[in-house]
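Curious: why these numbers?
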Amino acid sequence: MENGRNGRKKEPVLVIIQLSGGNDFMNTVIPYTNGIYHDVRPLVGIPEDKALPINGDLAFHPSAGPLRDLYKSGSVAIVQGIGYENSSRSHFRAMDIWHTCEPNAIATEGWLAKVIREIDPEGKNPLTGVSFGRGLPRAMAAPGVTATSVGNLDNYGLMTGIERHQERQRRLETFKRVYTPAIGTGAVMDYLGQTGQDVLRGADIISVAPQKYSSSVEYADNQIAQGLRDVARVHTAGLGTRIFYTQHGGYDHHAQEVPVHAKLLGELSVAITDFLTDLREHDAAEEVAVLVFTEFGRRIQDNGSGTDHGSGGGAFIIGENVDGGLYSQYPSIERKDWLNDEDMRHTIDFRGIYGTMLEQWMGIQPAEIVKGDFEQIQPFRKTLVGV
């Protein structure tokens, strides 16, 4: 395996980007030449001459130009029709399912927490998994597993011991408030008792990252850009983080979808492009793969102002070693094929995409983590697994 920064071996790194609210995949990767699309979306539909073509059938949203450029360069795999049977339309429950890989019961262990445990079974490095943003995502929470949650990376090196303790307590209270209704007091208290006090244990270590970082890339001042900048700063500091988690909110477009969705896709596309540029500048891109997901797609027809919760969404796998292209099948939008007379049907299970990232990119057997064997895709030209 090739040596990287500071003579360290390059180990594969997974970056997760969560698009919170339910991204409208049908308006992100658009069946722009299909008359049905334009008929059922008189308000939010993207005009054919404005869309950015991928081929004769599909096109990117006009605000996703940088993402389309990455796709044309071969760095983006589009996963079409991702979902699961009996898709939930509840934000909380849908995210819970994506975070735990358990559609039929309430689970107490996040899928990425299991990955962290697999990578670092004795919990020696509190920075094996790092989340940037408010609170620890359910995907990274499990009794006995430590993951570091960072609100503002720049403040870490400036906080006093008392301030860090206060911040830790606020985060633990948030975790307790959010997850107790879903998994019960017992499971939450087990988590808080065994690992909650370690959620910020990596604060002293991670605080060095901003001081060690310099870059010619100027990230925008928005949530996802700043989150990916923090990922770059920690990754290039060589602190041993293997799982990063970031979030981009605001995708629940029941109304005012046209301007808001355009703004968000623009932010996302530029942020990802800047992130990859930054990694390349630091010789730190080869070992990184990015998975972009959202909790569900939107309904096929618009509602006169936006789109409501649906299914059959999409995901993206992005990176230097990605074999770019279209994967799985775009769901049919023929009226006879609509699920529940309003939704796109999923064409690949999200757990198969998780399995793809785990087995092919991270070198981890996925069955125990995703709770079964699911169809995978082949989105990589090469990986570090077995090197």
Notes: The chain is about 35% helix and 15% strand. The radius of gyration is 20 Å. The first strand starts at residue 13 and ends at 20. Residues 26 and 95 are 20 Å apart (CA to CA).
